[in-house]
């Protein structure tokens, strides 16, 4: 069970084990190769009319087609941004700006487990007088459909929901909520940052009017994101400047990162099925070995309907950060990367209703294309040994 991409460095007993793929992924070798020419000899500005500019512009459009093919969209629906955070801000603040211009300042709805790049713009709009409602989640971390039916009403103008949670891997009932929102006349934004490359992401199947992608979550570089905008969706720019990206995202396009994202999108489309099965097998093996060696180990999140690479586990009688400190060669997380510096209980686990002891004991282990079976076995052995030392 080898990863699809073989790292170029040797494996051995002393090699660090990377189990934090939900925080970020390494760039795939093919992606690096696709990016390099645009960092050197192919340096043109896509807005220029000469040969160098035309070459760069063609590369941007080729990548746009690759991204569109990955998520079931049309190329002219793809807008490149500097990150998923920027894409989420453009979606939320841009739709609000459009609604305000049409004098349709109704209710904005999101969930309790969204990324800060969604909750933050919602907070900003609340400070400007917009009404907001937060959808609760159940104990498995999935949005409660009954609550959604009560909260999303005729006054709702916009709903934002993630496809899969970055901490627990819980896959959300996006289509059901999108159908409910559309029946009430609302626009729907789906943050697919964590789902892309792990499970199928299809704008039409999800019922999304707006869809966010993050390049660095599926083996492209950091600093490149996407907002997919269904034709006919009202959206206003939130930055002033040039007319790039359908006059919605001013600034010279990051051609090297866009070229890399196009290649990463093609690879994700070609190998999703195989990688999904492989990830599930490795994830379940890791979980099984840890559960056998650690009595009282608890899974946070649904046993099914979750990302194939993600395990969020609560280790009894210890704090997650203490456990990870005892295995410094294992890279994992006690929360999402954006919360990593804060010593407080994860807001996602808190929204799920976990008691403090269980939440403090949580560790997220997320696998990826470079993860191998020997690494999984060594990680489980080392985590079990470290836990036993801490509780003895």
Automatic annotation (TrEMBL):
SUPFAM superfamilies linked: PLP-dependent transferases
Chain ranges of the Aminotransferase class V domain: 17-378
Keywords: Aminotransferase, Iron, Iron-sulfur, Metal-binding, Pyridoxal phosphate, Transferase
GO molecular function: cysteine desulfurase activity; iron-sulfur cluster binding; metal ion binding; transaminase activity
Catalytic activity: (sulfur carrier)-H + L-cysteine = (sulfur carrier)-SH + L-alanine
Domain of life, source organism: Bacteria
Cofactor: pyridoxal 5'-phosphate
Family in the record: Belongs to the class-V pyridoxal-phosphate-dependent aminotransferase family. NifS/IscS subfamily.
Protein name, UniProt field: Aminotransferase, class V
Naturally occurring in which organism (per UniProt): Leptospirillum ferrodiazotrophum
């Amino acid at each position: 069970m080898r990863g699809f991409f073989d790292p170029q460095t040797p494996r051995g007993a002393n090699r660090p084990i990377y189990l934090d793929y939900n925080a970020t992924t390494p760039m795939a070798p093919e992606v690096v190769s696709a990016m390099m020419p645009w960092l050197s000899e192919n340096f043109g500005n896509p807005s220029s009319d000469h040969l160098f500019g035309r070459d760069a512009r063609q590369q941007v459009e080729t990548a746009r087609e690759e991204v569109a093919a990955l998520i079931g969209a049309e190329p002219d629906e793809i807008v490149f941004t500097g990150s998923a955070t920027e894409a989420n801000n453009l979606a939320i603040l841009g739709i609000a700006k459009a609604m305000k211009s049409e004098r349709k300042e109704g209710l904005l709805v999101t969930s309790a487990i969204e990324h800060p790049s969604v909750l933050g713009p919602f907070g900003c709009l609340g400070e400007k007088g917009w009404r907001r409602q937060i959808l609760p989640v159940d104990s498995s971390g999935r949005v409660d459909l009954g609550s959604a039916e009560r909260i999303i009403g005729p006054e709702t103008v916009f709903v934002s929901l993630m496809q899969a949670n970055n901490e627990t891997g819980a896959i959300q009932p996006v289509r059901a909520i999108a159908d409910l929102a559309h029946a009430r006349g609302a626009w729907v934004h789906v943050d697919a940052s964590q789902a892309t490359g792990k499970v199928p992401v299809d704008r039409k199947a999800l019922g999304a009017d707006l869809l966010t992608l993050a390049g660095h979550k599926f083996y492209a570089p950091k600093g490149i994101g996407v907002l997919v905008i269904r034709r006919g969706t009202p959206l206003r720019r939130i930055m002033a400047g040039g007319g790039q990206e359908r006059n919605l995202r001013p600034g010279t396009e990051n051609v090297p990162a866009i070229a890399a994202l196009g290649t990463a999108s093609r690879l994700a489309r070609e190998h999703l099925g195989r990688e999904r099965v492989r990830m599930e097998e490795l994830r379940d093996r890791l979980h099984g070995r840890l559960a056998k060696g650690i009595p009282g180990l608890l899974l946070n999140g649904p046993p099914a309907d979750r990302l194939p690479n993600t395990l969020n586990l609560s280790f009894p009688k210890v704090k997650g950060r203490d456990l990870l400190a005892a295995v410094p060669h294992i890279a994992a997380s006690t929360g999402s990367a954006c919360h990593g510096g804060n010593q407080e209980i994860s807001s996602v686990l808190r929204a799920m209703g976990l008691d403090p002891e269980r939440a403090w004991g949580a560790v997220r282990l997320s696998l990826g294309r470079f993860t191998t079976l020997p690494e999984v076995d060594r990680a489980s052995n080392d985590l079990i040994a470290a836990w036993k030392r801490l509780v003895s």
